[in-house]
Design brief:
Elements: E1 6-11, H1 15-26, E2 31-34, H2 41-46, H3 48-67, H4 81-106, E3 109-111, E4 115-119, E5 122-125, E6 130-138, E7 142-144, H5 159-162, E8 171-175, H6 179-190, E9 194-199, H7 210-222, E10 226-229, E11 233-239, E12 242-247, E13 252-255, E14 257-260, E15 264-266, H8 273-276, E16 300-302, H9 313-328, E17 342-344, E18 350-354, H10 357-363, E19 366-374, H11 377-382, E20 388-395, E21 401-407, H12 411-423, H13 428-433, E22 453-456
Parallel strand pairs: 1-2, 1-6, 2-3, 6-16, 8-9, 8-14, 9-10
Antiparallel strand pairs: 4-5, 5-6, 7-15, 11-12, 12-13, 17-18, 18-21, 19-20, 19-22, 20-21
Helix pairs in contact: 1-4, 1-9, 3-4, 3-6
Bound molecules: flavin-adenine dinucleotide.
Amino acid sequence: MADYDVDLFVIGGGSGGVRAARIAAGHGAKVMVAEEYRMGGTCVIRGCVPKKLFVIGSHVHQEIEDAAGFGWTIPQVSFDWPTLVANKDKEIARLEAAYTTNVEKSGAHIAKTRAVFEDAHTLRLATGETVKANYVLIATGGAPNHGPEIPGIEHVISSNEAFHLAELPRRIVIQGGGYIALEFAGIFAGFGSDVTVIYRGDNILRGFDEDVREHVRSEMEKRGITILTGCTVTKVDRHGKEFTTHLSNGSSLASEKVMFAIGRHPNVANLGLEKAGVAINPNNGGIAVDAWSKSSVSNIYAIGDVTHRHNLTPVAIREGHAFADTVFGKRPVQVDHSNIPTAVFSQPEVGMVGLTEAEARAQFSHVDIYKTSFRPIKATMSGRDTRVLMKLVVDGVSDRVLGCHIVGDCAAETIQAVAIAVKMKATKADFDATFALHPTAAEELVTMRTPTVRYVRQAAVAP
Ligand code: FAD
């Protein structure tokens, strides 16, 4: 230690970096965290939290529409975007302060500055100071992709700017078919914007179960969102406060905002990684790490989005915690990345854990599918044209539930509980032995008796 200023230097005060710093400090390490923007990182400042607040706010519109069937007369409603943004900013500032206090309380020191490598043990701060560290944790997260340099790209916003718009756009074009694009499509549509989603593939939500992809698309279209697939944005022209978005299919669209949500890349640029000898994973562009989150340099670790493994807050947190326990807590922990539950806070919401039908069929010889689509009880009175989707993917040999997919209100809340059962390797018989809770939508998960389809892959027979 004598040669080092700190035991651990954490680059990045986001979800993963903060957890690692606090736990390492708790284990008695001398820790410094550098954060160049705001403590809390993407999730707290411009990701999960403000996004969820916007989703909740925009969903009120649907509640108001549905109220009439239950006898409510709501004479006049109005919505004020600046109030929403200001209240959201207040809450984010509160959380940022809480993150700062919690790190300081743990005994770690925060440096509000950018930090880059000089060599494997030396960090240079933007203030000009250098700090020598025994271990370094890279937790710099990721940033939105801008895509190819199309003409007019400077007019396009990302999710970062979407949280701070001065006005609610009357019309918005959103390019992207992943969760961030669809969540913002639902947010803007809920607040009354006319929304068009542009996606280059044949359907939105690539990587999700095919039934989920179709169901979400049809439900979003029913709610008035236009989804154009098989095309891309080729050019954006500006005319004062309006834009014309040109598409690869030859058509064009007018709007007040154009947003791209076409993926995110790990923040590895200009970090001085080459000076430290840290290797990049050629498959995903993130920092290459082993199962302990150790990089190609023995005293440097990387966790969270900068490794581009599973870009989710709880994953970054768990990886940060495991790193700190392993290196400073004398308790080696490897993160098990299987069965990570995921939600898309689109409207309607998606919740999923485990394998999709296609993944299960590729990995297992016998796969049973249990699927139901039904009108939720609320819709019977509200008159809303909507259906819930629930699907279980089961190993036909062991009866183990391999995957669960839900589209509908509270899908994310439901899937969090189902994830425990899936992680515990529950069987379909365990689901069936569980009492239904009536009347709920989730009771369908324990009352689907007959498979909708059974797949059996025949073993290859020698000629
Ligand atoms: P981050 O939280 O990104 O933190 C990295 C920090 O490092 C940043 O604060 C950055 O300023 C700082 N930094 C970078 N370089 C330097 C440097 N050289 N020096 C000093 N500081 C530096 N995940 C979910 O689980 N659920 C969701 O609902 C969800 N919604 C999302 C919605 C949006 C719009 C976005 C963009 C993301 C969302 N995510 C969600 C993903 C989630 O935010 C990330 O997975 C998570 O924040 C990753 O944590 P991290 O610690 O790896 O990085």
